[in-house]
Write a structure and sequence with these properties.
The protein is of the alpha+beta class. The chain contains five helices and seven strands. Strand 4 and strand 5 form a beta hairpin. Helix 2 runs parallel beside helix 3 and helix 3 packs antiparallel against helix 5.
């Protein structure tokens, strides 16, 4: 219940444009690793393999909390919706003025029909694989909103019962104001 309330509050803050942001240099790879370590127990139960590639010294100007939320929403889905003994790959690269976050898993995938509504709020994909998975249906909607704040986008390619691939592209906000930057 607490996670649902926090997700709803995050969503409301993002949509209102009134969320206080602290823009600072952060290590995206280190944030992703930190988030994954929080999921490591569940990943170990499912015997998941995790591969993370990122430029070691690369820094990105962002709100650390937003980046943690972004990686949390991606990686928690990777753990929840993966197959026993599956794989999760996360690659972070600087490409021109954008950072590309490439994510793939060997999970249950998403049908073409369900991909049409995948990023909606409170959307839960129901099928034989997801029946017993606890889900709030807000994570990917929040992910898409965070990407938009960073002048980016989220794309997904998925094959049902095979795998999912996400590409998140984000761009650094102006570093002119380093703290309490409005979302607008």
């Amino acid at each position: 219940m607490r996670k649902l309330i926090n997700d709803i509050l995050d969503l409301a803050r993002l949509e209102s444009g009134k969320k206080k942001r602290v823009i600072e240099e952060v290590g995206l790879g280190k944030i992703a690793l930190y988030v994954y370590k929080g999921l490591a127990l569940k990943a170990a139960e499912n015997k998941l393999k995790f591969e993370l590639n990122y430029p070691e010294k690369f820094k990105f100007a962002a709100d650390k909390g937003e980046m943690e939320t972004m990686f949390s929403n991606l990686l928690s889905n990777a753990v929840k919706y993966n197959k026993q003994g599956g794989e999760i790959k996360l690659i972070i690269e600087k490409k021109g003025e954008f950072v590309s976050i490439f994510y793939s898993d060997t999970g249950i995938g998403i049908s073409k029909e369900d991909q049409q509504r995948f990023f909606g709020e409170f959307v839960r994909i129901k099928n034989e694989y997801t029946r017993n998975i606890e889900e709030r249906g807000l994570g990917l909607s929040i992910l898409k909103k965070i990407a938009a704040i960073y002048n980016g986008e989220v794309k997904v390619e998925s094959t049902y019962n095979v795998r999912s691939v996400f590409l998140v592209k984000i761009k650094e906000p102006s570093l002119v104001a380093q703290s309490a930057v409005p979302v607008n």
